[in-house]
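Archive record:
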Amino acid sequence: MRGLVIVALLAANPAAAQQAPLLVPSRDVAITYRGTGGADQVTITMAWLAARKMVRMEMPGVGWSVANHGTTPPSGFIVMEEARRVMDMPAQVLNRQVGAPLDARFVREGSDRVAGTACTIWRYQSGADEGRLCMTADGIMLRSQGSFAGQSGGMEATQVSYAPQDPSRFEVPQGYQRAAPRR
C-alpha cells in the first residue's frame, strides 16, 4: 500500500519524479553560443528541428554537421563545404551532441538565467566525464561546462531564437561526395 502511495504522488507531480533534464528541445529553436575557456573565442550556432529530434551545428572554418537523435542509435553527418564532401559522424561525437553523455547520471543543483532565459543547473557524471549543464524546461542547453576524455571546455548561449526551422537545412546537400568510412 505504501508503495502505491509513493507511485501515485510521483505520478501526480512529474517534477518530483524527474531524474534528469530533457536533453532534446521540444520545439524548434536556434541558439548562438560562445566558447568558454581557452584563448580562442569560438562562436557556434545550433538549430534544432524538434519534431525530428535533429540538430544542425555550424562549425566556423569547417562546415556544418547534423545529428539525428530520433534514430536508434543516433546517426549524423559532417559537411565539409570547401571540399564538397560529407562523412558520417563518429559515435563518440553523437554521444556528446546533447551536452552530456547519453548515459550520464544527473543531480539537480539550482537555477540561473542565461541569455535572458531561465534554466536549471544540472551536474552530470558518466565514468570519468563530468560537468554542469544549465537546461531550460523545454530541453534547450544554455550553458555547458565539463570534461570529456581528459579535455575541459564549455559554451554559453548568447542568443536564443524560437522559430520554425527549414527541414531542408538538415539534409545531405546534393552533389557532395560521401567520404569512405574509416576502418
About this structure: The chain has one domain: 22-172. The domain at 22-172 is CATH 2.50.20.10 (outer membrane lipoprotein receptor (LolB), chain A). The longest strand covers residues 151-161. Confidence is low (pLDDT under 50) at residues 1-17.
